[in-house]
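On clarity, I found the account of how folds are encoded harder to follow than it need be. Since the whole study asks how a given chain folds, the encoding of that fold should be made plain. For the editor and my fellow referees, an illustration may be useful. An entry of this sort, consisting of the sequence and the corresponding backbone structure tokens, reads as follows:

:::
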Amino acid sequence: MFNNESNANDQSGAQDKLPSLAKLWGKRYVQSLISYSHLLSNRDRNRFSEVSSLDGRAQTAKKLSDSLKFASAQAWSKTESLLSAEVQRHGINPRLIDPWHIARNSHQLFEKVLEVYHQGHAPQSLATVIGPACGRVRAEIAANDPRILGFMSMQIHYTGQKLLESLSQAERVLIEDYFKVLDDHLYMPLQRAYEAAASHSAQSQSLVAVQALLPQSSSIAQDICQYVIQKFGSYASLSGVLADETVLISSIRDAEMFQIYLCVCTLENSLAAFQEELFPLCLMLYPPLKVEWWLVRSLVEQLAEQLRLRLSTQPQHINCFRPYLSAMQELFSAEVIGA
């Protein structure tokens, strides 16, 4: 149905392309740390140096490892309270939701994050370390029911939030981007995108279009959210008004997530990621979070506008995304899901 220049039999450069997309995505995690360090006073800079040393990282990692079990229990309680009614409403088999299995996966993934942090590696390097493990967890869950991914991603997100509460400001700034890497790789099909990219030749127009989009995805998400705030600033979801820091961070992540699903569909030459994961997840997660469908439509419309503006000098890239972007707009139309 759609044109695709990928060639599954052409493995030229395949081993290089998978990490290259991970590196493109990973570069985004260094900016907040750089910006923060420039604003520090001399006294705060000394404290920052202490906690960022290997000894300081070891102390932070141990503190968080000791707190992980309790934080995980608190996170599951919050996840369950938000989503328990959706299980019955969407006809999800409750036997597929195994709290112990979800907690075990969450614990193992956080331990990997803490190990990388303890070793002093930069957060962007975590993307290549944690990506395969997150991909396996996502694939395992999605094989039974993709909607269970919502429970897993919320568990990871709320566990990270609880762990950060126990840290000093310097410690939080140092480690929160590591948690964001994990959060992103569970919330978004990043590993699926990396693996889909590996099946393309280096000259694939679809691959080149995705490589052009990824470095801009964070900026695009921020512009989308600023537009929504300006237009609907008084609107409040369950977590607060759109301009609240916590809500803004989640909104930016959602705008990034829609872009990653768009990339996956483009690379796979298929709507499966939309139809089997993104759409069912949104149907389950957005209502209990008090996110209205007209707001989601505004996000999708602004995504289309941002791509048109950002890629205006590269119409071949727009053409690669266009059929899948149109499908996304149709899925979230008022005719399909209501106002």
Remarks:
- The first strand starts at residue 236 and ends at 237.
